[in-house]
Amino acid sequence: MNINSICVCGAGTMGSGIALASAQSGLYTVLYELNTVVLENARAAMQKNLGQLTEKGKIAPGETEKILQRIRFTSDIQTCLADLFIEAIVENPEIKTGLFNQLAELNHSEVIFASNTSSLSVTSLAEKIKNPERVIGMHFFNPATVMKLVEVVKTVYTNEATVQMVVELAKQMGKVPVLCQDSPGFIVNRVARPFYIESLRIVEEGNIDFPVIDRLLEASGFKMGPFKLMDLIGNDVNYAVSCSVYRQLDNPERLKPSYIQEQHVAEKKLGRKSGEGYYKY
Ligand SMILES: NC(=O)c1ccc[n+]([C@@H]2O[C@H](COP(=O)([O-])OP(=O)(O)OC[C@H]3O[C@@H](n4cnc5c(N)ncnc54)[C@H](O)[C@@H]3O)[C@@H](O)[C@H]2O)c1
Prior knowledge:
By secondary structure, the chain is α/β, with parallel strands linked by helices. It has 2 domains: about 5-180, Rossmann fold (3-Layer(aba) Sandwich); about 190-275, Orthogonal Bundle (N-(1-d-carboxylethyl)-l-norvaline Dehydrogenase, domain 2), CATH 1.10.1040. About 45% of the residues lie in helices and about 15% in strands. It has helices at about 15-25, 35-55, 65-70, 95-105, 120-125, 160-170, 190-205, 210-220, 225-235, 235-250, 260-265; strands spanning about 5-10, 30, 70-75, 85, 110-115, 135-140, 150-155, 175-180. An 8-stranded mixed beta sheet has the order 3-2-1-4-5-6-7-8, with helices on both faces. Nicotinamide-adenine-dinucleotide binds next to α1, α4 and α10. Nicotinamide-adenine-dinucleotide (NAD) binds near residues 89, 91, 142 and 237.
């Protein structure tokens, strides 16, 4: 089977970026999102993003319209027909499998279901989907239009054809696919957990303010300090990933999620997407 059509589900931080990266690489892309306001905001953000690329001379004038014409924005799941689906919806296994099962009813039995989950077990998602051999992890990084790495997460069920198609697709999108095992947080999010959790712990201990930690880490070579990065990712998403990795690794003290971050989520201080996180936007 060739991948001729892609449907990205969820038009939030990641879904809108993945859909734009897909359209920029020449693929016809459906972007499906339940919330029509989020969908409209995604379209506006893409237009702005492409406008900036035109100003910088990175894309030719007139390209913006051509790229946007390759994306069909929809809130109607009945119209979501594609060869490959990439879900980037809320980090909740029941909601993700519920969506894939709805899509499985509407599409032929060989369509590929790729999850952009940061931390959930792709194997346990696959187990709840008919024909689990076509379920795979395709983990993009934020911002998805810029970051090259894609972790391709194979489960015990995933067949070789699915792996190959997803690897090829990632390359076609200009990305660098890296195969990894289905383990908590895969590679990057596992390694990155202490970066966030230790930084939050220093603040919890009351020793130092978060902007200082950001400045020090940036001065020591990190592109972004942990608090700026958590605001970019979204505190809800980052906290969900921390909780999920912690649970899956049997609650090690060193990876205990931070109550400061829990509080930020409860207060809807989610970061850039809500206008306030650790910083104001
Ligand atoms: N934010 C990041 O930096 C990042 C990086 C890599 C992976 N991820 C993963 O990507 C996924 C999405 O994260 P995000 O930051 O884009 O979240 P987000 O909250 O910005 O966006 C999620 C969107 O999904 C929509 N949605 C929820 N249920 C839906 C459904 N059933 N059908 C269609 N749309 C639905 C919501 O309305 C929302 O707009 C999560 O699994 C997350 O772990 C996030």
